Amino acid sequence: MKDRRISYFRQKGDAYIMGTSIGLVLSLLMVAFIMGVILVKGLGFFWPSNLLFVKLEDGKAYLGEVTDREEKTVIDASGTSRRLKEVQLKIGNRDLYGLDFIWIPLDAVVKQTYPRMAITIERLEYGNFYGFPQRLHAITETWLAEESGFIRRLQQWHDRAVENRKRIAKLEKRLNRLLEPLSHLEREISLLEISPQAQTPEGQARLQALEEEIARMEARISDRYEALNRQLEKLHQENAQLILTVQTADGAEKAIPLEKIVRFYFPNQMNLFQKSALYASKLWEFVSANPRESNTEGGIFPAIFGTVLMVLIMSIAVVPFGVMAAIYLSEYARQGPVVRLIRLSINNLAGVPSIVFGIFGLSFFIYMIGGTIDQLFFSSKLPEPTFGTGGILWASLTLALLTLPVVVVATEEGILAVPQANKEAALALGATRWQMIRKIVLPNAMPGILTGLILAISRGAGEVAPLMITGVVKLAPSLPLDTTFPFLHLDRKFMHLGFHIYDVGFQSPNVEAAKPMVYTTALLLILLVVVLNMIAIRMRNNLRKKYKMAAF
Fold this sequence. Notes:
Helices cover about 60% and strands about 15% of the residues. By secondary structure, it is α+β, with helices and mostly antiparallel strands. It folds into 3 domains: about 80 residues, Roll (SH3 type barrels), CATH 2.30.30; about 90 residues, no CATH class; about 250 residues, Orthogonal Bundle (MetI-like fold). Strands 6, 7, 8, 9, 10 and 11 form a 6-stranded antiparallel sheet that branches. A 5-stranded antiparallel sheet has the order 4-3-2-1-5, with no helix packed on it. It has a two-stranded antiparallel sheet with strand order 12-13. A hairpin with a 4-residue loop joins β6 and β7. The two termini are about 50 Å apart. The mean pLDDT is about 85.
């Protein structure tokens, strides 16, 4: 009787249902745990923490943010064990101390306070500076920190220094654009001088013509060049006279140019609303600004832009080829051993390590195709390559090959799901095979095609290994898409969120300070993949509803 009940229980499947449900719950808990760790470690990085001042028994003093606390067991000289509490301070001032963090035993602390005038200064170089403002020197005037209105004056002059810095950057760009034609002519002269044609009469005549053209161009742009230089010199001189002097916790003074300061604030004086506003500002800077300090500070907008653009180019490349391959295999090819071998090969390609595709992209796309394009269309720029080096186009095509098997399999499954009766009905009404595929098969298989695209986006957006040898870089000087003709520059190198995580986490000179940036970038990459997938899923669901209603 007991055996019969056990057999019935197994046949009913309750044990298997319970096992699968437990597996689902465990998987969701692991995902939630990972996301929780990323959220806490990443988003907490932008909160303006209070500054703690501590003075030790040996007379040393430190000022910084409390980042961690721990309690550990230590054994003294007599062999007695005791509990030791320590606090980790982010002391900043890397240019003075050479490190960002320090562990301080609480037993050695004789004084700890939260001074109201403690200032946090975020700099363009050397990270944060923590100290106490002493005086502000602005051109011909000097204000002491004890004077009323000091913070207001400091903010006004800092705004002016930042505005000057922006104007300097714009003027330098105008100067570069002004001198760019001259640079091209000088480069052409250099290449001609080392070529065999330089000794021929034609070569000599060409050199003389180029030199005359340079002389005419220098005369034409000299006035504008001098005017821009005068403006630059005036702005540089003004910014050089805007100095904030700050004192560290141990009494040393440091003069910081206002143009080198990103922002400053007094966290011990701020209320919750002010800190929340500053938190939102820093979070927006992270999403919209360029990176600085070896990618450990600032923003990651170029990496976001590069990732999205790469995924779009990859999708444009992989979907047509994947759909055409699936249509041929399911509708045109004669089923037999050869087609079965092709399908087996496609399935096996999905398991090939991604670095293999990267090596193939390097040899085929960059060296073979890119080198040929340079020989045919950009020979004047050789030996400097244009397309014969890594770029966003070759990286996108490499990832398109990587994700092609996924799109082919998903599309073919979608095509096979179309009822055979619908195909035969279209053919019976006089439609050609291509008309039947275009009007019947493709519309009904579109959800399957989009499923393949969703899977391709999920895999392609997070791949790093192929990109490292096909175009991704640590820091890209300019975006692949801008306002300069031809607007989309497929030959340019680009930044990627996945590579940014690798670079900051494993190649940074200051790993401890870079940890929050790793968590935050990982969170942003996850959100980006989710958003791209949600867009594709929404399109797929709309198509399913459309063709489901059309069937009635």
